[in-house]
Known about the structure:
- The chain has nine helices and 14 strands.
- By secondary structure, it is an alpha+beta fold.
- Strands 4, 5, 6, 7, 13 and 14 form a six-stranded antiparallel sheet that branches.
- It is globular.
Amino acid sequence: YQRRVRAFTSRMDEEDSDLRETEVVTKYKTAAEIANKTIANLIPLIQPGKTALELCQQGDEWITEALKSVYTKGKIEKGVAFPTCISINNCVGHFSPLAGENTTVHEGDVVKVNLGVHIDGHIAVLGHTVIAAATSSPPQQIEGRKADVICAAHFAAEAALRLLRPGNKASQVTAAIQQIAETFHCNPVDGVFSHQMERFVIDGEKYIPNRANLDQKVEDATFAENEVWSIDIVMSSSDGRPKETETKTTVFKRAVEQNYLLKMKASRYVLNEINAKFPTMPFTLRAFEDEKKGRLGIVECVNHGLVSPYPVLYEKPGEFVAQFQFTALLLPTQTDKITSYPRLPFVKSQYSIEDPKIKAILAMGTKRKSNNKKQKKKKKKTTDAAEAKPDQPGQTPVTAPAAEAMDTSN
């Protein structure tokens, strides 16, 4: 296993994986296209009566099948970069159930779906929130706390996108997230981070806290050109301090720096499967050929730090959690949001954004002059070449009396 990890590292050192390389950008965008298509196909299936298990299975199957038709020449690593998760209502995330689990979607549920794809270690992740409804019923505008938390997450994600530019700081994004949350009388979920991503690394050293924690000192990252970021905004209608329950963790990631001689046969089977199939990316136990042995063997792996768990956390019963996640490339002339699902839940909040500073952020464009052009035209004043419009037709969040998003029904 260590030899394989060293091989990954060697390849990363030898091969230029910088966004200045056209082929690197193409790999990111190809992975993003598969993620976008998968979630676009999956969301219409999120209807009353569907189980989280079958939705997660379908998402992973579509990703695997789509990857078979791209980069077919040579030995290129490609696969699921984050297993499909379906987290309902007060479940914060990482819910990717195993066989026999029968959590079911009901009418009006707030459902979060997120997944990831990678090609040659170039990762694209995506998360979206919908409100489950039967396709046969006409769309109904949703109000109340469901609307508030969805709007808070959506507009915070839009603000984060616009602040994600070279020279800006992570603390600026965290502050905007907090201010927007307060506008909608919601709270950012504690313990959630947006991460810079690198080749074969889904959670790099730079990160943005979803919520400021005065008790925890964090380095205030500065964004730089040619970086890749996973922006993950998670909002709660409650206090934003979720807890673990009896729901078992099923998503893990190999801690590449850790080694231990395991005692149980099932544990050694699990570790061999991980090292062979998921050496660097998060995985679900559902992906093991012998799922039963996987459940048994993962315990010793966790106890000795060989894998890091992605726990399933919950807010208080009766509360709601919304998530919007996307991948962005900090290219020389723009921040390119490469993963998204354009159709938003049909909701209307009782609150609206009035703060001039937040309005100014949301009105910003995502295109900018490159550093080279700035150096050539130091004396010339420049403005953004174009604006990135919010994912809403005919309406911007900064002028609307109440935030409203479009119908997700097909």
